[in-house]
Amino acid sequence: MSSPMSIACRNNTRLPLLGALSALLFTAACATQPGAVGSSATLTALTEPPARHQGYNWFFDQDEGEFQLFYGMAESDDIPLGMTCSSGSGHITISTPSEDNHARSLTLTSGGQMATYPARATEAQVFDGYNIVSQTTPADPVMQTFGQNGWMAVAGKDGWMSLVGDGSARELARRFMAGCKR
Fold it and tell me: What is the pLDDT of residues 33-71, one digit of tens each?
């Protein structure tokens, strides 16, 4: 079952959500940084969710054994973070846009847990910049906590960028994590 949502690309074409996210690993993410909490020099694990950014939310899609969860604005290419997995694979791919092709790690926090993952920069196909891509598992403490509370934050050059959705976020995170587990 394909999602009726789509992503609007810079060239004004529209890609179905699942196809756009799978094929491009979130390369349509011309993300603006909706805001940061703290400074990058003093990052500590967040125990409470930061304020929600107006218009941003978590979006879930499932099609033929592929699960996708991304944080962004509906019907736009503004996607600060995306995650994908194959059903029961036990592996999660995380992607976030960046202007820096030298980034070699990705740091996330959720509910008092914090982890830094090795990452690689890949050239984006649809926007000017790069995707910072990393791997983790559903057993990772940050991912487990996110699956329970539905919020997280990603470290950026200006501190934590909050990824807080509406009331459906917890259920979407739970469904995504359940689909990825072995």
Answer: 444 454 444 688 899 888 888 899 999 999 999 999 999
In this structure, the number of other CB atoms found within 10 A of the CB of residue 92 comes to 23
pLDDT in tens, 145-170: 999 999 999 998 888 999 999 999 99
Q: Do 10 and 77 contact (CB within 8 A), yes or no?
A: yes
DSSP assigned state of 37: B
Tokens of 139: 């057993």
C-beta separation of 177 from 70 below 8 A: no
**One-letter amino acid for residue 67 of the chain:** F
Instruction: From 88, 104, 172, 96, select the one nearest 138 (Cα to Cα).
Output: 88
Which residue in this structure is represented by tokens 């194959």?
A: 86
Give the pLDDT of residue 182. 82
The answer to whether 95 touches 29, Cβ cutoff 8 Å, is yes
What is the residue type of 9?
C
Mean pLDDT over residues 127-156, rounded? 95
As beta bridge partners, residue 72 has: 57
Is the pLDDT at 98 greater than 70, yes or no?
Answer: yes
**Secondary structure (DSSP) of 84-107:** EEETT---EEEEEEES-TT--EEE
CA dihedral 20, 161, 137, 118 (to 10 degrees): 100
The dihedral formed by the CA atoms of 59, 62, 67 and 70, expressed in degrees to the nearest 10: -10
